[in-house]
C-alpha cells in the first residue's frame, strides 16, 4: 500500500522525462494487481529486448533507435575526459535503519535517503542506485561482472549518473582465509629448494576484497527474487564507497539512459574505482538479476547502430531479390 502510494506521489512530482525514465524505474507508474506490484514492461531478451525498445512505445522511446549519443559505450580513451574525484563534491547519507531494496523486474534497486553530487557548480540529488549484470559500459573493451548506477537529478531536471564497475573478489581476500598452505609442501622439488634459500617474493598483486556495502545489500537479494517484491536491508554505511569514489577519478561523457526511453543529455561519470563482491555473492545476485545489460552503443556522435543496421538489412534484401534464385543447398 505505502509503496504504491509513494510511487504515485513520486511519479506525479517528477518531470516527464524522469517519470517515464527507466533510470528512475521506481518512478514508473505501476498499478497493484492482485497484491503484486506491476513491474516494467520492457526487458532484455526477445521482442521486449533492447533491439526493439523503440517499437515498444512509439514515439516516446524513439531515441533508443535514432539517438546519436546513446549509452552504454565502450570506454576507450577517445570518448571521455577525466575528472578527478577530488574535484567533485559527493555526499551520500548513511541509512542506519536500512533501506528499501526492490526488484523492479528489470533491476534490483536501493531507494536512497539523501545525497548530492556537485560538479562545476551544478548540484544533483541522489534518487536511487541499482545494478546491471554484466556491466553495461565496457572498460576499454572489457566487460566487468556487474555495474552499479547511482542516479542523480538536478533542480533543473538534468540527470547525472555515477557508474561503478563491480568485480569478483578473490576468495583469498576473505578475512578468514588460511595462510598459503602450498609453500612448505613442495620442498622436494629442486625449484622449491632453491626458493627456500631466498626471501619469499612479494604477493603478485593486492588481493581484491569484497565491498562491505555490497555484501550487506546483497545479503538480502534472495528475499526479493520475485519481481515486484521489496525487502529492508540491514543498516548501510556509505562512506566506504564515497571515499573510494573521491580518491579515484571519473571518466565523463554525455550519453543517455541505458533503459527506455533512452533520453539523452545524461551526464555520465564512470569511476576508475572498482568495487567487488565475493564469488558466492555474485552467484546469489546473478540468480535474481539474471541478465540486464543493454548492448554497447555506437561512438557518441556517430549514427545509431540500429539505423545503420536497418540500412544494411534493406540493402541486403534488395540484393537478395535481384540475385538469381539460389541453387538447392548441397
Ligand atoms: C586500451 O586498450 C588498447 C588495446 O586494446 C591499449 O593500446 C590501450 O593502452 C588501452 N588503454 C588503457 C587506458 O588501458
Ligand atoms: Zn542503470
TrEMBL record:
Region forming the signal peptide: 1-19
Keywords assigned: Lyase, Metal-binding, Signal, Zinc
Pfam families the record matches: Carb_anhydrase
CDD domains: alpha_CA_prokaryotic_like
Lineage: Eukaryota, Fungi, Dikarya, Ascomycota, Pezizomycotina
Matching InterPro entries: Alpha_CA_prokaryot-like, CA_dom, CA_dom_sf, Carbonic_anhydrase_a-class
Domain of life: Eukaryota
Alpha-carbonic anhydrase domain location: 40-320
Molecular function terms, GO-annotated: carbonate dehydratase activity; zinc ion binding
Annotated PANTHER family: CARBONIC ANHYDRASE
Enzyme class label: lyase
PROSITE patterns: ALPHA_CA_2 (PS51144)
Sequence segments annotated as region (Disordered): 185-205
EC assignment: 4.2.1.1
Similarity annotation: Belongs to the alpha-carbonic anhydrase family.
Protein name: carbonic anhydrase
Organism, as annotated: Staphylotrichum longicolle
UniProt-listed SUPFAM superfamilies: Carbonic anhydrase (SSF51069)
Catalytic activity of the protein: hydrogencarbonate + H(+) = CO2 + H2O
